[in-house]
């Protein structure tokens, strides 16, 4: 279906000087809800089909820095009701659909690195688990969720792995600087994680806690602006210079020639200089 018109929402907001700007919009996996987050103030939960606000969090609620909807356990159900025949009508009662309810789960982190879990179903929003902050984590900048594993990346370059089933937590110290984005590879039981930093890209095997490969900028590749998976074993890297690269897990063929970079002085290798 192609929509030929634009539907505007929050039409009365944003008109006051100094009002908080929108920093994040995240749509649920069943495409029934979306969250709008702001630079200041509470976030809003919206019904995507009806375009109405389901809940605005209280102002005392902490400012959120990252958010992710659950890719599992989402459930869509239809409820039907019986319509009885009116007086004098001998026909049978008919059943007509009353409503469609979607149950989905969302996790988010605040500026103190605490993890919150919410269940959304119809008009009901249930507050769930709150997981305290992990030692050694900076401000959370990205969350990725697959199966029973939630991964959080922070400004310090650390990646925290939280297993919801075992309730165990592990940290990976990457040493690569702030995490910009993370993405799990597609495929069942495939827990390879693609991580984008300010200074490069890494691929990790979360099951084994082993790094598969990495690229450093600008040594191996120009600055990477965004990442994603093309398949279970191929990644897409969008470069700041306008190039899009497709590579396997070995990240072969993504390196750029050193002369492609603008330098004030040509590179030299002291070991090869004449005596």
Provide structural commentary.
The chain is an all-beta fold. Helix content is 0%, strand content 50%. It has strands at 22-27, 33-38, 44-47, 52-56, 64-69, 75-83, 94-110, 115-121, 124-131, 140-146, 149-154, 158-163, 168-173, 179-184, 192-197, 200-205, 210-216, 224-231, 234-239, 244-248. Strands 5, 6, 7, 8 and 9 form a 5-stranded antiparallel sheet that branches. It has a 4-stranded antiparallel sheet with strand order 1-2-3-4, with no helix packed on it. A hairpin with a 5-residue loop joins strand 2 and strand 3.
Features:
275 residues, globular, 20 strands, five-stranded antiparallel beta sheet, 0% helix
Overall shape: it is globular
| Structural class estimated from helices and strands | mainly beta
Beta-strand residue fraction? over 45%
Query: Percent range for helical residues?
Result: under 10%
The Cα radius of gyration reads 24 Å
SS elements, strand count: 20
Largest sheet: 5 strands, antiparallel
The first-to-last residue Cα distance is: 72 Å
Mean pLDDT: 80
By oligomeric state, this entry counts as single chain
- Low-confidence segments: 80-98, 266-275
What would you say about this model in short?
This protein is mostly beta strands and 275 residues long. It is 0% helix and 50% strand. A hairpin with a 2-residue loop joins strand 10 (140-146) and strand 11.
What is the fold's blueprint, element by element?
Blueprint: E1 22-27, E2 33-38, E3 44-47, E4 52-56, E5 64-69, E6 75-83, E7 94-110, E8 115-121, E9 124-131, E10 140-146, E11 149-154, E12 158-163, E13 168-173, E14 179-184, E15 192-197, E16 200-205, E17 210-216, E18 224-231, E19 234-239, E20 244-248
